[in-house]
UniProtKB/TrEMBL annotation:
Record family assignment: Belongs to the bacterial sugar transferase family.
Protein name according to UniProt: Putative colanic acid biosysnthesis UDP-glucose lipid carrier transferase
Location in the cell: Membrane
Gene Ontology CC terms: membrane
The organism of origin for this protein: Winogradskyella sediminis
Bilayer topology term: Multi-pass membrane protein
PANTHER family in the cross-refs: COLANIC BIOSYNTHESIS UDP-GLUCOSE LIPID CARRIER TRANSFERASE, UNDECAPRENYL-PHOSPHATE N-ACETYLGALACTOSAMINYL 1-PHOSPHATE TRANSFERASE-RELATED
Transmembrane spans: 12-34, 40-59, 71-94, 106-125, 265-287
Keyword Transmembrane helix: yes
C-alpha cells in the first residue's frame, strides 16, 4: 500500500491569507473609512469583489519558487484594481458620503498592512525551511546537461525555497536505466520528478508519465527545442529556469478548493436535514424487517492521496464475510429484496453525505473503490492512480456516462478512468451541477447496471 502514498503539503495557507486580508480591509473600513456608518453593505460587496479581483489578478498565486519582485508586482496590480473598486462603490452609494482623499488613504493603509503580512509569511516560511528543515519537497532530476545542472544548483543553493534534491540521473552511456530511477524514487519517497526532454526519447517520456500518474508523483519538464505533445502545459520559473508542469489540476487551486468544499458542506447538510432525517428511520425499519444485521454498512475505501477511509451505505445485502472483497453482480443472491430497491434507486449511497460533511468525500468526484480492487487496478490499469489526486465522490462523470456499477471487463474500468481524469482536469462548479442533475434523472429512470 505504501507504494502509492505520497506526502502532501498544507492547503490552509491561502484560505488563511484570504481571511486575514479580508479582516484587514473590513477592519480598517469600519474604524477609519465609514465613521460609524452601517458597514454591512460595504463589507459584503467589497469582500465579494476582493475575492473576484484576487482570482482575476492571481493575487494569491504565490509559490515557494515565486520571486519577491513578482510578489510585489501582484500587490501593485491588486492595489490599483482595489482602489478603482472602492471609488466605484463610493460613486454608487452616495448616502455613505465616502470622499476621494479618505479612499486613497484607506487603500494605502490596507495595502501597507497586507504587504507586510504577505512578505512576513513568505520570509517566515523560508526561515522555517532553512532553520528547521520543514515544508520540504524531495526531488530528482532525470537527465544531465547544462539546464539540469543549473536546476540542481538552484535546489542545493536555495534551501529557503524548500526543495531537498536527492539525485540527478545521467542517462548518457546508459549509466542508469529508467527502472533503477523508478525504484529509487519509490524507496526514497521522492515527491517531484523533473525531466530534461533532450536527454530522453519519446518512449522513455511516455514511461515516465505513466509511472508518475500511477504512483501519484508530481512530474515537470525542463523544456528545450523539442516539441512536447500534451494536453495542458504551464510555464513556471525557478529563479530564471523555465519549467513545464504536465497536468494542471484545477482543484489544487485554493479558490476552487474553497468553492467546492463550501458547496459540499451546503449540499450535504441540506440532504441530511431534509432527506436523511426522515428517510433513514423508514429504510432502517425495512432493512430490519427483512434480515438481521446492522442498518448501515461500513467499508474501507481509498480516497484523496490514496488515504483509506470508512465509506457508509445503507446495508443492501445479507451480512456476509465476502462483502469487502467482491462487488455485487447481476442476480447476486446476497442482495436482499429491499436491497435491490435501494440499489436500483441509489438510495443505499445516501449515507455517504455524512462522509462528505466529514471531509472524506465530495458530492461529485471519482467513485472510490474497495481497497482490494484499488490495489488490483493500480497494478494493471494505466493511470488509475490519477483518480486519487482529488477527493472521491458520491457520484461522478464516469457514473453518469455509463460506467457505474460492476466492472465486468477491463474496458469498464478503463472507460471509468478516462472520464475521471477528464473531470479532474476540467472541473467546474457548473460541471458538478450538471453531473448531480444527471444522477438524479438516472436514479428516477433506473439504470441497467444498478443492481
Amino acid at each position: 500500500m505504501s507504494l502509492f502514498k505520497q506526502g502532501r503539503y498544507s492547503g490552509y495557507l491561502r484560505p488563511i491569507s484570504y481571511i486575514i486580508d479580508l479582516t484587514i480591509i473590513n477592519g480598517i473600513a469600519i474604524f477609519y473609512l465609514l465613521n460609524g456608518k452601517d458597514p454591512i453593505i460595504f463589507s459584503v460587496i467589497i469582500s465579494i469583489c476582493w475575492i473576484l479581483l484576487s482570482v482575476y489578478s492571481q493575487f494569491y498565486e504565490v509559490y515557494r519558487y515565486t520571486r519577491p519582485i513578482n510578489i510585489l508586482s501582484l500587490i501593485v496590480k491588486q492595489f490599483i484594481l482595489f482602489l478603482l473598486l472602492v471609488f466605484a462603490f463610493a460613486g454608487l452609494y452616495h448616502e455613505l458620503n465616502i470622499y476621494p482623499r479618505p479612499i486613497v488613504k484607506y487603500a494605502l493603509l490596507c495595502f501597507i498592512l497586507i504587504t507586510i503580512f504577505k512578505f512576513t509569511v513568505y520570509y517566515l516560511l523560508q526561515k522555517y525551511r532553512t532553520a528547521f528543515g520543514g515544508n520540504y519537497r524531495s526531488t530528482v532530476i532525470l537527465g544531465l546537461n547544462k539546464k539540469t545542472i543549473a536546476l540542481e544548483n538552484f535546489f542545493n543553493k536555495s534551501p529557503e525555497y524548500g526543495y531537498l534534491h536527492k539525485k540527478t540521473f545521467n542517462f548518457k552511456n546508459k549509466e542508469y536505466s529508467l527502472e533503477e530511477c523508478f525504484e529509487y524514487i519509490l524507496i526514497e519517497g521522492v515527491d517531484e520528478i523533473y525531466c530534461s526532454i533532450s536527454e530522453l526519447n519519446n518512449a522513455q517520456i511516455a514511461d515516465i508519465v505513466d509511472f508518475a500518474d500511477n504512483n501519484l508523483k508530481i512530474l515537470k519538464f525542463i523544456p528545450d527545442s523539442k516539441e512536447i505533445y500534451a494536453k495542458k502545459l504551464r510555464y513556471e520559473y525557478y529563479d530564471y529556469i523555465p519549467v513545464l508542469s504536465l497536468r494542471n489540476i484545477t482543484l489544487e487551486e485554493s479558490v476552487n478548493k474553497f468553492i467546492k468544499r463550501v458547496f459540499d458542506i451546503l449540499f450535504s447538510s441540506v440532504m441530511i436535514i431534509f432527506i436523511l432525517s426522515w428517510l433513514t428511520p423508514i429504510i432502517a425499519i425495512l432493512i430490519k424487517l427483512e434480515s438481521k444485521g446492522p442498518v448501515f454498512f461500513k467499508q474501507s475505501r481509498n480516497g484523496f492521496n490514496f488515504k483509506e477511509f470508512d465509506c457508509y451505505k445503507f446495508r443492501s445485502m445479507m451480512p456476509n464475510k465476502n462483502a469487502h472483497l467482491y462487488q455485487a453482480t447481476r442476480g447476486d443472491q446476497r442482495v436482499t429484496k429491499i436491497g435491490r430497491f435501494i440499489r436500483k434507486t441509489s438510495i443505499d449511497e445516501l449515507p455517504q453525505f455524512f462522509n462528505v460533511l466529514f471531509g472524506d468525500m465530495s458530492v461529485v468526484g471519482p467513485r472510490p473503490h474497495m481497497v482490494s480492487h484499488t490495489n488490483m487496478y493500480a497494478k494493471k490499469i494505466d493511470k488509475f492512480m490519477v483518480r486519487h489526486f482529488v477527493k472521491p465522490g458520491i457520484t461522478g462523470l464516469a457514473q453518469t456516462s455509463g460506467f457505474r456499477g460492476e466492472v465486468e471487463t477491463d474496458k469498464d474500468i478503463i472507460g471509468r478512468v478516462k472520464y475521471d481524469i477528464f473531470y479532474i482536469e476540467n472541473w467546474s462548479l457548473l460541471l458538478d451541477l450538471k453531473i448531480i442533475i444527471q444522477t438524479f434523472i438516472n436514479a428516477v429512470k433506473g439504470e441497467e447496471k444498478a443492481y
